[in-house]
Structure formats: structure tokens, C-alpha cells
């Protein structure tokens, strides 16, 4: 049976959330087992319109599955483990880490969803934290340094 797009996408979301299929073919076959006849091109279009992403292991994930927010405790642990210094410069906070660790801490910062943080850019041992307008970089640098146990 052909399903209306809303019903089909709802079922696709349920399948992706539960089973994280590794291919569009696998998704087409799973839909067929659940009574929804659909071709690969329709699945491809639906995935794109739903914002479904591919994880590093090749499996599909819903946008909210791909980016899991971290809690205050995980942010603090990450800062204590990786941050060597935190310094404000204009609307940026410059965080230094041991070589090879900037990316890991930047991911934690991005997922922490701190309202002061617009985003991060990570190199090998340095992270630029872009501070949103209306917030003070110096205050954020001090907060991050405190959580890292640097002050």
C-alpha cells in the first residue's frame, strides 16, 4: 500500500530511531515489511526533507539523535580533563588544550548548548569559542576556567 507522505515519514522516523538502518535499501525493505510500498528515490527524498544524517559508522540517525546535548557535569569533566587555559580576546574565548585534544573539547562545548556560545572552531591544541552578542567573553572565559579548575 502507498502511504501518504506524513504517515510514511512518521514510520521512517520510528524505524530510524529504533534500528538505525545502514542503507536506504534496508529502510525500503523494513517499510515493505510494515506494509508501505516505496521506492529508493522516494526514501532518499524523504530522508533529505526530514534532515536525517549519516553517522560516522554509516548508519542513519534523526537530527536529534545525532547531536546529543551534554549536561553540566559532562561539560565540567571535559574542561577539567582537556582545558589548560582560558583567555578572552574581543568576542572570543581562546581555550588551550594538550596537543590533539581541542576537537574533543570543542564537541563537548558545542553540545553543552551554553547560551553564551555561538559556536566553536577547533585546531590541534586551540579552540576559538565565539561569544554571542550581548554576552561578555571575559565572563565566559572566567566561568570556563573556574569549571576547569584553573581558577
Descriptive overview:
The protein is built from seven helices and six strands, in the order H-H-H-E-E-H-H-E-E-H-E-E-H. It is of the alpha+beta class. The protein has a four-stranded antiparallel beta sheet, covered by helices on one side. It has a two-stranded antiparallel sheet with strand order 1-2. Helix 5 runs antiparallel to helix 6.
Quickly describe the structure:
With 151 residues, this protein is α+β, with helices and mostly antiparallel strands. The chain folds into two domains: 5-66, Winged helix-like DNA-binding domain superfamily/Winged helix DNA-binding domain (Arc Repressor Mutant, subunit A, Orthogonal Bundle), CATH 1.10.10; 72-147, Gyrase A, domain 2, CATH 3.30.1360.40. The chain is built from seven helices and six strands; from the N terminus they run αααββααββαββα.
